[in-house]
Amino acid sequence: VTLTVNYWLIKRVTPLLLIGLAWGQDCTASDDTPGITLMSECYSIENTTAIDRSWENLPGTISPGIGLLTNLTYLNLCCNQLTGDIPPEIGNLINLTYMDLHWNQLTVIPPEIGNLINLTHLDLKMAVTGPHTGDAIPPEMGNLTSLTYLDLSDNELGCHNYDWLGDWQTDNCNQHCDDTNECTAAIPPEIGNLTNLEALFLSDNHLSGEIPSSIGNLVNLKSFGLKENDLSGSIPPEIGNLTQLHVLDLKLNQLTGDIPSTIGNMTNLGVWDAEWYNPSMGGGGGQEADYWPAFDLSYNQLGCYEYDSECEPSSDYNSSNCCITHCIDTDACTGEIPPQIGNLTDLEYVILPFNQLTGPIPPEMGDMTSLHYLDLRYNQLNGEIPEELGDLSNMGMMWLYSNNLRGEIPDELCNIDVCGLDCNNSGNVFGGNYFCPPVPDCFPDYMIEGIGEYCNSYPDCPGGYTPIADPPPINGGHIYDGWCFYQSDLDNLQDFIDVNASLSGEQPIEIGEQNWINWPDSYGRLNGLDFSNENNEISIIPESIGNLDELEVVNFSNTQIT
């Protein structure tokens, strides 16, 4: 027989046992064995294997003496009024498989919790109200490799060291985090060690930093909730490894960049699994099981590539003004909805509003025939509505307003119940876009009101300007209620084409990277021109560049000028 000794565990547990033994027997249990008094009851030190004192409104603290009950496998103290730290002696309970402390007013998660290597279920939701010190989520939790369920949601883990917050600690901490940039708590990369996890809930914690790429190791995960944090950076492409995932909720963060194409690997998104239903995954206060969005990335900055964390958002739910390089004024925001999203055929809800997503609506979304609710409001989506959306016969609600969509509304949308487009008669399904008549006959008047007002096929441009109906993505956005460009500037760009053979066949609007002004005094004027990415194709600079009198930035680096 080979005996494997876990020296790390012995090193951590032995001093805790010595501390725990200092408490010693203080009562005789009902089975006449030595006992320890906990929460006004006497428990056998040797024979106690389960404690369930949930929903008893218990006050006071968790005694360090609990560390003597080393044969304990089940501990449920949820839904009480316990305060103080979770004692480090909890780390003695190495046989524990189930621990539920949620709905208490405890403070610190001790690193010794990492000793509980047999835990399969750990629920600390609304249990650890802080203020927090050190690592709010101890990296030692990465040792809990047997866990299948971990809930740390609603703990304001990012709030720490604020002793002045008073009795209404959580509410004040939440306000403090909103008002300052001092709340920091990261998701430790060690979370990726928990490869048996099937449910992970970290919502409502003011967690900051990036989602670690190690999250892609959690290949057994079915439910993943990170909503209402301060997470930044991009969604790691490794998230596509989570092919068993049923629910992904990342709303109300500060995530930027692209929606990774690997999202298309997560073909179980939307498959209903009541075992892992968790109300905290829904909206404020939770949602009923029949409205549990399985894919929610709303209220982020997807498409924006640099976010100002010190910026004051324009509202609680719209922080688009905090994108450092504004998407409306530049082409720095290029995050698109990947066509691979069409693989997610079991999804009933796709919720992506209040981001900075650009590019077209992928026609592959027409393959998502289980879709009941599609919300793409308040993005920078362009192009036309794909006729394939007419295949979504189960649609219960579709929101497309406040984008840069254009062209005609396809007749195929008549295949969707009109109520499926706008059950609330709000008239805002298509508003805030640049659609042109004709409009399908199936739509009532209230739904098509205003269509054509900003039709950008060929806008009426003032003298000296030229309309371009379908320019490539450029920095200026919509100019003069459409695409109006100062003709003289276009002529000067044509001179570049005429004297550089490598540009032959291109249009003036297509060469280099361009920035066009869209404010009233100088709308439609060329403001920036960058040839640094043209692979040395520019060899001659025409003298007419001097006629571009609104040009402020020009870049010819990496070119060989003759």
TrEMBL record:
Gene Ontology CC annotations of this record: membrane
GO MF, any single term: ATP binding
Compartments it resides in: Membrane
Keywords: ATP-binding, Glycoprotein, Leucine-rich repeat, Membrane, Nucleotide-binding, Repeat, Signal, Transmembrane, Transmembrane helix
Coiled coil feature spans: none
InterPro entries reported for this sequence: Leu-rich_rpt, Leu-rich_rpt_typical-subtyp, LRR_dom_sf, Plant_LRR-RLKs
Name of protein: L domain-like protein
Membrane topology type: Single-pass membrane protein
Originating species: marine metagenome
Any one Pfam family match given in the protein's UniProt record, by short name: LRR_8
GO biological process: defense response; post-embryonic development; response to other organism
